[in-house]
Amino acid sequence: MKKFSNDFMIGAATAAHQVEGNNVNSDFWVMENVPGSMYKEPSLDAADHYRKYKEDIQLLVDAGCNTYRFSIEWARIEPIKGKFDKNEIEHYREVLEFCHHHNVTPIVTLHHFSSPKWLISEGGWESESTIEYFINYCHFVVSELGDLIPYICTINEANMGKQIAKIMKRMTSVNESDQAKKPDNADVQVGLNVNMKTKMEKYYRALGEAFGMDPRYIHTFLAPRTENGEKIIMKCHEQARRVINELNPTIKVGITFSLYDHQALPGGEESIKKEQYEDFLCYLPYIKEDDFIGVQNYSRKIHGPDGVVKPVETSRLTKMGYEYYPEALGNVLEFVSKHWHKPIIVTENGVSTDNDEERVEFIERALTGVHRCIENGIPIIGYTYWSLLDNFEWQLGYAQTFGLIAVDRSTQKRYPKQSLSFLGNINMI
C-alpha cells in the first residue's frame, strides 16, 4: 500500500454515550432503562472511557496513530436546562489537553445522537426552541474549550432521520413471515434493531411517563423526522457554525453524513438518484460555508427497478448483517467530490467482526480506495476508523465488535487488536 502524506490525519473515533458510561441525564439512558425497553441491554458503565480515556488514547498513540475523533456529551455539560456543569467541561478540557500533549489531533463532535433528557421533554428535534438550546450549548463549549479544538463536527449523521424513516417504511412493507426467515439487514449500519412491533405500545407508554409527555411527541435525534425537523437540524448546524466562527475563527467547522455506495442493476438508476438527493445533495445549500465535510460509510446498496434489493445469497456479510464491501468508501468519496470541492475527512468507516484478520483486510482495502481518490486530486485530509473500542451499539447492545481494542466489560481491561497496530503503521507498510 502506498503511504499517506505526513500531515494526513489517521486514527479512530468514538461517541461519548457509547463508551463513557453512566450518562444518566441523557435521553438514551431513559430509553435503555424504561420497562419494555427496545434495547437489548442498557449501557451502564459502557467501556468506562470516561475514567480510562488516558489509557485508551495512549494505546492509540503507541500504535502510531495521530488523530482521535470523539464527542462531547451535551447531557453531561448541561444536565439541567440552562445549568452548565463546570466540572464536566473540565473533564473534556483534560481529554483535549492529553491529546495535545501526545501530538494527537482532536476532532470534536458536539452532538453524536444522544441529547439531554430535558431537551426531549421540551419538544426535542421537532421543536424550534432546540435551535436556541443547541446554540447556547455550543457557545458554552467553544467559549471554554475552543482554543484546544482544531476541528468541530457540529452534528453527527445529520441525515440519519431520513435513513431511519426509510428503514421503518421498508420494515412495514415486508411480510412478517419473510422477515422472520431472513431479516433485511441492508440498513443495520445505523445500529438499530427495527423488529419492534410487538413491544412498541408498552415501550412508548413507558417513555411517555419517563419524559412526562404524550409519547406521540417524543422526538429524539434518531426518530423519523418531518420536513420541518430536517430544517431544524440544519438550522442548528448553520447557527452553530456562525457562533463557532465568531468565537474562534481558527476552528474548522463541518458536519457528518451517513452515506452508502449506491450501485444500480438495470432499471435501478432512478432509485439511486432519489436516494442520493435525499441523503446528501439536498443538504448542500446548508453546508456551503463549511470548512470540511465528514463522510461516514460502511457498505453499499444495490438498487433495482423497485428500489433497494437484498445482497445475493453468496454475499460476504459482516457481523452486523450488511455486505462486507470495503470498496464502498472510495466510491462514496468519488461521488461526494463531484459536488464538494473542499477538504473531506472520513469520520467513520469500519466493520463489526470477531475475526480481526477481516478487520485488517477491511482497513487495507478501504484505505486503498482513499489513496486512489487522493491521487485523483480529491482533498481527503483524514481517516478515523470506527471505532477505537468495542462499545455500546445503541439498540444492539454490546454484541457488535467494531473496535480496534477489545474490552472485557467485567474488568474493563483493554486488549489491543492487531488491526490497531496495522492502522497505526499504515505509512510503514
TrEMBL record:
UniProt keyword Hydrolase present: yes
UniProt cross-references to SUPFAM superfamilies, sorted A to Z: (Trans)glycosidases (SSF51445)
Any GO BP annotation: carbohydrate catabolic process
Keyword Heme: no
Pfam families according to UniProt: Glyco_hydro_1
GO molecular function, one term: beta-glucosidase activity
Gene Ontology terms: cellular component: cytosol
Gene3D superfamilies assigned: Glycosidases (3.20.20.80)
Keyword vocabulary terms for this entry: Glycosidase, Hydrolase
Domain of life: Bacteria
Sequence similarity: Belongs to the glycosyl hydrolase 1 family.
Entry protein name: Glycoside hydrolase family 1
UniProt organism field: Salipaludibacillus neizhouensis
